[in-house]
Specification:
mainly alpha, 10 helices, 3 strands, 5% strand
Length: 203
């Protein structure tokens, strides 16, 4: 029972953090305990896990600070994504189902603009491309970036609301490049897309 409460608290708080809405906020165990209808203990356990993941910094008797996404973290995550995604293009582009998969995710993302689902679908779009390459090592490493990817997109879109339209347009160009099986074009589009996301966060 205690484990379930702690897991529920962890998932709830983490989901809120990934939207970017809590960046820089000091959070209270008591507030979340009341919100979830649990004691402070499972919330404290959730906060400790989130601190280990680098999403929070705990201050005894004061609360937990949600660590904002900084330029250094953004640069590192997006650089890692660029390496993995561009390395996946050559193999992924041979998957006959990939263009339609990406197009479907793009349509879902259009409908989710302005909601927390936008970042989740952004991650799903890029993950689909990586997984289509069929390299389990690259897919495994990339999956480890998922939460940070969602948070980066949420931060970029929140900072400049028009950013979502720009992201959707770039994704549409990537889908077109995949349909044409133009490896060099897709690699260039991905690199430019990730650079623009980074600029949107730090500007």
């Amino acid at each position: 029972m205690a484990y379930n409460a702690a897991e529920r608290a962890y998932e709830h708080v983490k989901a809120r953090i990934l939207t970017g809405e809590l960046d820089g906020h000091m959070l209270s165990e008591g507030v979340f305990a009341m919100e979830l209808g649990v004691s402070r203990t499972p919330v404290r356990e959730a906060f400790l896990r989130l601190q280990v993941e680098g999403l929070m910094r705990l201050y005894p008797k004061r609360g937990a600070l949600v660590v904002p996404v900084g330029p250094h973290e953004s640069r590192e995550v997006l650089a890692a994504r660029r390496v993995v995604e561009c390395a996946s293009v050559k193999e992924a582009i041979g998957d006959p189902d990939l263009p339609d998969t990406l197009a479907d995710l793009l349509e879902q993302q259009r409908k989710a603009a302005g909601t927390p689902r936008f970042g989740e679908l952004d991650a799903a779009f890029h993950t689909a491309l990586v997984e289509a390459a069929g390299n389990s090592l690259l897919s495994g490493f990339y999956q480890g970036l998922r939460d940070r990817q969602i948070r980066l997109i949420a931060t970029a879109v929140r900072t400049v609301q028009e950013r979502s339209d720009e992201i959707l347009e770039q994704h549409a160009n990537i889908v077109a490049g995949v349909r044409e099986k133009d490896v060099e074009r897709v690699e260039a589009l991905l690199a430019d897309h990730l650079q623009r996301v980074y600029e949107g966060i730090v500007s």
